[in-house]
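Q: Got a minute? One more chain.
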Amino acid sequence: MRMSSLSAELFPALSTSIHWGIIEAEFRLNDIVDEKLVSNISIIPFVGDQCVVFQLDNGDWELPGGTLEAGEHYMDGLKRELMEELGAEMRSYQIFGQFHCTSSALEPYRAHIPHPHFVRIIGYGDVELVGDPLNPEDGEQVVAVEVVEIDEAIRRFQEQNRHDIVEMYKLAYVLRNEAKQSGKDQVF
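A: Always. Here it is, folded:
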């Protein structure tokens, strides 16, 4: 049975407001997208039953995704981010939630994204690592891409006190397994 609501006991970080600098975010478990509010998209990537994580040149581990370019559809943005950050192609993607965000900045991060309210989509999916990360000059610089067991991915994010990412990986792992057991295919 697919989860219909978050358990505050199992997912305490996702069950309360999250602060990312000047952004306050509230996670909602659903796959309904209001495209005019989408500014960012992320993926919990899998290769088989293992997770993919990547490390930036500052030593931090991250999950793939980012801000959309002007006029870019969110799925195209996700495909671009996967190549830039992982050197990967997307094989499937299933949205499982959204962060409804409010920025306290006077102006948007980029002129083309919604402000002050916007949505960051989060999903899980299968990827295929096909090359090295593109590492564009104006983007984050990736120094390592690794395929690891879920427990190892969680450990790395816990070491950085990124409990929001820990819970996103846990939730994606649970939902993906539920979908596999029920025979539901992932979609783009």
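A: The first strand starts at residue 18 and ends at 20.
Q: Perfect, thanks.
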